[in-house]
Amino acid sequence: MKKYLLTLVLACIPMFATASGSGVALDHMKPDLLDNASLQRGAALFTNYCMGCHSMKYARYERVATDLDIPASLYEENLIFTGAKIGELMQIGMSAQEAKGWFGAPPPDLSLEARLRGTDWLYTYLRAFYKDDKRPYGVNNAVFPDVGMPHIFADLQGVCAHKPHFGEPVSFDPLSGIEHSSNGCQEFSAKGSMTPAQYDAAAYDLVNFLAYMGEPSKLDSHRIGTYVLMFLAFMFVFVYLLNREYWKDIH
Q1: CB–CB of 11/151 below 8 Å?
Q2: Going by C-beta distance under 8 Å and a sequence separation of 6 or more, which residues neighbour residue 56?
């Protein structure tokens, strides 16, 4: 018995290590896979900003369009820029060899990134870039220090002037109602086209989409699971009555 318990504890250690991540406090976000509008906005952000470097080679355009209630013709016209067909995998034109030469390492495929990193990590990471003139692209990241990725959303968010902090509770002045919190970026060295609240919402939409991509069949599984539980509850009544009928003469 002790040996089994020890094996279970050792098996759980990597899970705790992954959960701890980089050791940086993270902001929480809860994906909503029923919010199709959010998922559609996230798909548009991913296609326009991320897919130049990051593929989703385990997914197909057609499955995404169907799940997100986007007409195939509309998706093909507005969200496929490589000449690929709607039924093809979501690959990119850049080869791994070219990417390694340009960036030092190929940008990762993002099909399962939300399952690997967690949605809290991704949500905080997208909002954690700040100005750092010592880095090749002029920015660093509070969640992923010395990351090799540029701040691709700088035109939306702007560039934070100082290293932001996350995971701190929001507080309000009891008299004025003004928010007092050092959470997130407090000062910008370059302005973006969005307000901080708008950019946070955009980051949420993108991470929501990545959460969907990590497990596209999750909603189907939940729906089928509900029907299975209802069927078992229905059958339990008849099984119970049958069992009582079998044993009534014995008792």
Answers
A1: no
A2: 89, 90, 109, 110, 111, 213
Read off the pLDDT of residues 65-107 as tens digits, 9 standing for 90 and up.
999 999 999 999 999 988 899 999 999 888 878 877 777 788 8
Instruction: Report all structural domains of the chain as residue ranges with CATH numbers, in order of start.
Output: 27-216 (1.10.760.10)
Cα dihedral across residues 218, 220, 226, 228: positive or negative? negative
Task: Quote the radius of gyration of the chain (alpha carbons, Å).
Answer: 24
Cβ neighbours of 251 (radius 10 Å): 5
User: Which two three-digit tokens encode residue 35?
Assistant: 């919010």
Distance CA 136, CA 100 (A): 15
DSSP label at 143?
Answer: S
pLDDT tens-digit series, residues 19-40 = 444 567 899 999 999 999 999 9
- d(CA 153, CA 202) in angstroms, rounded, equals 10
- Residue whose C-alpha is closest to residue 72's, from 55, 54, 84: 84
Question: Would you state the pLDDT for residue 3?
Answer: 53
Alpha-carbon torsion (43, 44, 50, 54), positive or negative: positive
| Contact between 164 and 184 (Cβ < 8 Å) | yes
What pLDDT was estimated at residue 170? 67
